[in-house]
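Memo to structure team: turn this sequence into structure tokens by end of day. - J.P.
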Amino acid sequence: MSQILPFTEANTRRVSSLFRQAMRTAFDHALRFDLYRQATQDIRAQFEANREVSDPEELERIIGATRAKLREWKHPDPYIPPCRPGGTKYQRNIPVAREPLVPGDW
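Reply from structure team:
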């Protein structure tokens, strides 16, 4: 894998993607909102602590460690929004209404 220099748009995208994955993983594990909120604050603090890393090798090491941690914490049954592929309502056929949507004689 080629190194991506810090403070570039490509690196920003990689770190943003990891951050979103961490937030989703925290949501999958949280049973209560207050626990989820605390987990998101902890994750944000960890990302902020490494915000100013400018050494490309150190950056690659941190990103690799973050990916490994995400694999370790991956939930076996993640939350899937109902209307997304794999959700409980995905591609349900809702019958078409046969009566007027607005009652009355117009």
